[in-house]
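To assess whether ligand presence alters the predicted conformation, the chain was also submitted together with adenosine-5'-triphosphate. Input:
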Amino acid sequence: MTVQGGNTGNRLLLGIDLGTSRTVVMSDHGYKNIIRSVVGYPKDIIGVKMLGKTQIFGDEALQRRSALTLYYPLRDGVIRETGDGDYNAAAELIRHVVELARQGEARDACGIVGVPARASIVNKELLITVASDVLSSVMVVSEPFMVAYALGVFNNAIVVDIGGGTVDICGMKGTVPAADDQVTLLKGGNFLDERLQAAISQQYPETQVTRNLARLIKEKYAFVGATEEPVRVTLRAEGRPRLYDVTEEVRAVCEAIVPEIAEHLAAIFRSYDPEDQPDVLQNIILAGGGSRIRGLDVMLAERLREYGKARVTCVDDPDFIGCSGALKMAQEVPPEFWDQVGFVGGH
Ligand SMILES: Nc1ncnc2c1ncn2[C@@H]1O[C@H](COP(=O)(O)OP(=O)(O)OP(=O)(O)O)[C@@H](O)[C@H]1O
Ligand SMILES: [Mg+2]
């Protein structure tokens, strides 16, 4: 395929990373934003009057949850087609971020949308339909592939994207990854939150730990393997604050996801030609919010030890890297060529 880079038409180019827990948007005009992937609809007419609108997105929706019914468009890494709610929520979330990124401009918008690997396989037509309403050209690709694109690694590399809903492992083999080269595991960050909440409540039954508090503790202290300092956090027992040591709970919960990731990572590694395997072993990339778990790179390298000395690295900016890969691709490959790369649509 030969393509000329650059945005030749008078179009606004967008990269959108539609994640289970947060959606990121960037434009070729320098706009960037990150919002939680949640849409709230007022429960009744009082809610509509009080809030002054019929849909609320992101953190604002969470803050006003008592007046709203909340929808998370992607659960377990796919759009559920069971109820209309999730379908509409995905469409409205995409519309919302496109409108934000437009900043009042009326030009046609073309975008590349990165979604969890499973959605890029299971929901591709649906996603195209949903996004085609607001984008004049759209292509749907998998999030880990977008990370690889941002880094410019197209061959002999494996991207492990540890997100909120899913862990996506994607082998780069010089082409757009096929379904066989990608695995989605359902134990991502949300699973860790649930397990940590349960583990702390079990160890200290007198404390009150919400899912959100468990998430905050995880985001601050998550680690696997050895730790230099104990993890002590303030929890409330019958309203009174007290310091509790949760080192072992944090460690055990974070380590719980390692065996499954290591096993699937090894399976994708073994699918490469033997002469490429030494190269692949030097190119294992961790992305997604979960890549911030301290010690995870070292522990995964240890788990691959039987294959040789692995080099596992974490991306610098896990929040924006997938989205910046999508925007980079939109800028380098003109929309006319998108049908040669992925699944496309538009209005
Ligand atoms: N320092 C941290 N340590 C561990 N986990 C973290 C840290 N910071 C963020 N996370 C977790 O990362 C997850 C969000 O990651 P990310 O933004 O990559 O997900 P996503 O792209 O929305 O989800 P998915 O890829 O599953 O669709 C959340 O579960 C969040 O709690
Ligand atoms: Mg993600």
